[in-house]
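Problem 12. The chain below contains 703 residues. Write out its predicted structure in token notation.
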Amino acid sequence: MMATTHTWRFFRAGGFDQVQLDSGADLLALKELDQKLWVALSCPVHGIEFDGRTLEMIDTDGDGQVRANEVLAAIAWAGTLLKDADLLTRGADRLMLADINDTTAEGRQVLASARLILSALGMQDATHISLADLTDINNFVAGLQFNGDGVVCAKQVDDAGVRATVEDIVKTAGSLADASGEQGIDQAISDRFFAEAAAYADWYARGEADAGILPLGAGSDAAAQALQAVRGKVDDHFVRCQLAAYDARAAAPLSRAVEDYQHLAAQCLSVQNEEVEAFPLATVAAGEPLALQAGINPAWQDRIDALSQLVLLPLLGERKSLSIGEWRALCARFDAFSDWRKSNPAPQLDGLGIARVREILSSGQQERIDALIAQDKALAPEIEAVHSVERLIRYQRDLFKLVNNFVSFREFYSGRGKAVFQVGTLYLDGRSCELCVKVEDVNAHATFANSSGVCLVYCALVRKGGGEKMNIAAAFTAGDSDFLAVGRHGIFYDRNGDDWNATILRINDHPISIRQAFWSPYKKLSRTIAEQLQKFAATKAGKVQDVMGKTVAGSVEPAAKPAFDVAKFAGIFAAIGLAIGAIGGILASVVGGILSLKFWQIPLAVLGLMLAISLPSMTLAWLKLKKRNLGPILDACGWAINARALINIPFGTSLTGLPRLPEGAQRALFDPYAEQRHAWPYLLGLFLLTAMLAWAWYAGYFE
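Solution.
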């Protein structure tokens, strides 16, 4: 056992000792308490009735689970920033500025941030700050020019030139979301952009230095694009002309048939028509050059004109036609340009252009942007302190409640309130179930939680016409399970008072109460007799209906009446007589034995007989009820339960409410629709009892 200087107090509940946490000193000393004495070592961040924002703050590693070490860290942090640790036990949602411990650097920073927030809200003279004041804390942070996240947005930049550069970087190098929601850049994006810009500028300079790469200087790129736009179509034209030179018969079909034009004639044509564009560039003729001003496919005329203006005119002068040799030589002059373009290290900067890239690199804006990012990062401690104000208020309000549902289950076992894992109350089958937990996967939870020994009813909850859905497991710990069945409906009220429609999906059947166990043998016998009678009646009715149907249909031939077999019927009657005699003997023995007792002993004998029948079932149920365990139910929900948290019979009874009439209520016993009672069943019973007694007397049982 870990040595401790703190005096602990424990209370016993659920069959084990639980630590009693009452003061701030108890909370601060928790780090000294052996964690084997903690009820839970982990709980989920979501799915329980606790402020999710607070749990997310405690969950420092962000894995969706709050563990013991994170609870201890939260207590230690809050205890350091408060002058009085007892403030953690009061559950207040507002923090007095005077209670912040300003003897530490972090405390002074938190105090300054609290005053900054109050000042921004126009509450400079306020002596306290509450969670209500921090409702728009994110908007407050987002409204600052610099918010400590290291991301600079264009709107934060006053200098127009630097602002334009930031916008260009966002367009070409990517962006990150700032705390304000705007897109901006951080140091990594800035460094990557300027490195790519420098590489782009060097690459472009190599092209400018080689006339073979840029045959038209600055106009080479536009010229190459104009050439590339028609290169495939012009190549196609000259190949067709070569085929016509090879075989004169090819010229006509390669220029398209008359029928193709007849098909177009019925259409509303335009130069954007895809069928027109697919026609040859010009009329196919053997050995003829390509005419550039007349006879060109209308869908390609604009692109041929661009080729003439941007490529042919600067390189070859004014031309009306182009031979195949000139075309091939022209294409060869741009091969080096194509290879150079493929080596572009930053093609995304083509949209800015070399002039803009060189302007950015030469303006010294990289240093200004880096300075802005550094300025934003420098405010990170102050912004963190702003969030620390919210964290401190939440810890002051919520930590005491958390430890009493984590280190111990004080709220659950005290009965003064609901534990954080209790999500509401289910009303079903004339009962109210207080132990209801939220589950994600019903089948997985039911498989694991079956070892709890608790009768769990899994329900699908729906509200707002199916807009909201949830699954729960409800513990039935009082009454019986006679009328619990899949498909039954009930109403569930969550902790906010909202009502949900509940439908049973699955039942983990276990003993619910000693009372149920007492009557269980008689109910089983009654059900068995009823089932057998129903089967017997159904069989007889089926046979009668079958015979009647065959008779009506005329399908049954009259059969010869068998001769009366005296021996057979004598044997049957003898067997029946023996059976009746045996049963009568047993009953007579029981009745005779009871009647041989004194009058006051008869009720005791009857009670003893009933106990003999019910005691085994009651004993087995009692043993199981004593072992009911809350642990598997919560473990299946993502908790790490560290103790055998038992649900004994008295405590379990308190978790399920049975219907009771209000105190002082008036009750009318007359039921106008009650079934009428006839005297003949009682007379028949009296007759049979009298006959049995007479037979017993005659047989000498009363001697």
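Discussion. Residues 142 and 180 are 4 Å apart (CA to CA). Students who got a different answer should revisit the alignment rule from Section 12.3.
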